[in-house]
Amino acid sequence: MSAVTTATQRPPKAAKRPRFTPRLVPEVSKRARETLDLVIPDVSESSDENHDSDPRKPQSFICPFSDPTRDVCCQAFAEPRNVKGLVANHLARIKQRGGDESHPINDPLWDDWIIKDFYFARRPKLTPEARRRAMAESNKQHYQRRKKRQKREYEEKKKLWQNGLISTEEFRKILVGKVRVEFDAHLSAMEREQEMQEALQAGRVNGSQDDNSVRQTIATNTTSPRHKSEPSVALIDASRDVLSSFGRSMADNFLSSQRDFLAYTGLTYPTEARVESYYFWAAYLSPMTAWPKFTPWEPAAHTDLNTLLESQIKVWIASVNANPGNNRKEVKVIQSRLQIFNKSWDLVAGESSGAKGSREMDDQAFQAKHMKLWDDAKLSIRRALFEQIFTGAGKSPSMVVEAMNTLTSVLASIEGNDSPETGPA
Length: 425
Prior knowledge:
Blueprint: H1 2-7, H2 30-34, H3 84-96, H4 113-119, H5 128-162, H6 168-173, H7 177-206, H8 211-220, H9 233-243, H10 254-257, H11 261-265, H12 275-285, H13 299-322, H14 328-350, H15 363-387, H16 397-415
Helix pairs in contact: 7-8, 7-13, 9-16, 12-14, 12-15, 13-14
């Protein structure tokens, strides 16, 4: 009895939570929010999305046989529907049954445009090229709609973001193209400025460095964590030894060339949409440890590579925009790399056995051709990055090993870790 009484007792009332105004925690500094000044390109608000639509298209979807002037009109679909397919299915079922009293099968209305070419219309079968053109036009219209939304909502969303009422990611979603890239570059610049201010403040507190020395240290070592100490002479010397291992001779190595590493290897980013271009990016973006089991011609692999390339392009563009006097032409060249990658993938997909078109290949021929292209791309990049220039610049293998061990030891000492053991166990 006591057990029943205990179970039926009402639980004590929970304490009331204090009422508060919802407010998101700021994700970036207050200065980054207050100094945001993006130029939003003007976009015409004239509706051009339906410029090619048929003027006979109805504004609401009802059964054409529901006209009240008819002797016997349709009552089931006389009220407007939100979905065209509901009316289309209604008409198709009745026609398949041979009509009824309100939908006579011999009525001329069945051959009218509204039924024959609107409700019964089907998507045309397109060739791969026509499908690409249609998708390009659809993407263009979608991009224009997003630009109009950006122009319409920017000021309101900006105020909400600056007041911390919406997250940075939510505000970023309404930004499009160049404006979004400039926004990312603004946040990166503000983050670097904050790091510099913190380093300057730490230098003043310690009294060991003046402002100029701290600024120079940060400018030459922007990737080091803010809590690390200034790189020592030993670290610089060890880094030079490792970098000089990439070269063709003692007189010609990567460190002394002062060139971009990819250009120094002799490789270039593809500038044309070709099947070979797609496999270059597949080998360039994927980890070498994943190469043996990686099949880049599969759609899932393309999706992963596309994500990696999009992320890399953001880094490239932010780097260009962060430099004073950035070159807009260079930004366009960087952006074109993603277009070339996707167009090259279209060529690969167009040759698969599931594709529709004249370039279709059977599975065996497709596998043989594309496995060869994949192997050639891997070999080209491996040779360029390692076999042709990772020669030790005239050093013996033992000197290369010692240089790597020295650099590892110096880095470990700076981070407070134990130095690695030298030589095999």
